[in-house]
Amino acid sequence: MRRSLILVAVAGWMLWGAADTAAQTWSRPSFTETYHDFGTVARGANVEHLFWFANTTGREIHVRGVRTSCGCTTPSVVHATVRNGEKGAIRVVFNTRSFTGQRGATITVVFDRPYYTEAQLQVRGYIRRDVVFSPGSVEFGTVRQGESAERVVALDYAGRDDWQVTSVHTPNPHLSVQTRETNRGAGRVRYELVVKLAAEAPAGTLDTELAFQTNDWRSNRVPLAVSGQIVPPLCVSPAALYLGDARCGQEWKTRLVVRAAEPFRITQVACDDPRFVFEAGQDAKTLHFVAVSFQPGQEAGRLSAKIRIHTDLSGGETAEVTASGMVLP
């Protein structure tokens, strides 16, 4: 009897140890990076960073919460639940309006599924006291593809009388910046910055930064974040369908949201995989819901298919969605 109890205890200890080891190892390597340096930024600038992680556990991941060691950062969970094979992110905002000088923080990410474990992320940066952007970033919001947009930002400096912006680096060829000095005197300098987005910009997310070069020998580079969303004439959400692990013989259902700025009709929804079935309305409107049904039958294996949505918009606008997943026996 005593021997049996010992064997049970040892087996339990080994199982607990294996689970604990898995909990300690699965989350940390899945982050693309665990450290980020914001560099030198202006006071009041909108500065943030996304830490991406991939779920390769074979199970669903759940992020219970995040905490920070310093009020100079505000972390948040972008994706609380991440299915196997998908990616999630933790957002960290640098609080440049409330803090100045050299700052750093440790962000602790708490997971409670499939195991309880924690991962730590590190950030640091220097917030200048003498340079202020107003507003703190260039935000274009939503811009229709084919249209231009313009935003104005004020740059204020307090310090040397001879301080000046010498050049501006724009990594995106569809962005341009005009600088105009509007005030100089008593150790203060102000610039008006006109940031323009060209009509030729392609559809997609705009996420970049402008780099202002100055004659300040201590820190001659001041970044300014630029963000926006350039939407095509026809948009589909989600842009990709992930079925996860579907079972043979079990129907899988979802829907696509299709929208445009003007009323339109969906003329056809086609797919190169005949196991997909679609249902769409016939009326002309700016927002459509397309019912999607996947009927896997008895054919197991990896799934990868293209879904094409045809409309009567000018030029016969179409949209394409990629469907992926695994069909299990």
Describe this structure in words.
- This protein has one helix at 2-26; strands at residues 35-43, 47-54, 61-68, 73-77, 81-82, 87-94, 101-113, 117-134, 138-144, 149-158, 165-169, 175-185, 188-197, 204-214, 221-231, 234-237, 240-247, 252-264, 266-271, 276-279, 285-294, 301-311, 318-328.
- It is mostly beta strands.
- It folds into 3 domains: 29-127, Immunoglobulin-like, CATH 2.60.40; 137-231, Immunoglobulin-like, CATH 2.60.40; 234-328, Immunoglobulin-like (Sandwich).
- The strands form 5 sheets. Strands 1, 3, 5, 7, 8, 10, 12 and 13 form an 8-stranded mixed beta sheet that branches. The protein has a 4-stranded mixed beta sheet with strand order 9-15-14-11, with no helix packed on it. Strands 16-18-21-20 form a 4-stranded antiparallel beta sheet, with no helix packed on it.
- It is flat.
- Residues 5-20 and 22-29 have low confidence and may be disordered.
Considering the chains and any ligands shown, give keywords for the structure.
single chain, 329 residues, mainly beta, Immunoglobulin-like, 3 domains, 8-stranded mixed beta sheet, 4-stranded mixed beta sheet, 23 strands, flat
Give me the secondary-structure topology:
Layout: H1 2-26, E1 35-43, E2 47-54, E3 61-68, E4 73-77, E5 81-82, E6 87-94, E7 101-113, E8 117-134, E9 138-144, E10 149-158, E11 165-169, E12 175-185, E13 188-197, E14 204-214, E15 221-231, E16 234-237, E17 240-247, E18 252-264, E19 266-271, E20 276-279, E21 285-294, E22 301-311, E23 318-328
Parallel strand pairs: 1-8, 9-15, 17-23
Antiparallel strand pairs: 2-6, 3-5, 3-7, 4-6, 7-8, 8-10, 10-13, 11-14, 12-13, 14-15, 16-18, 18-21, 19-22, 20-21, 22-23
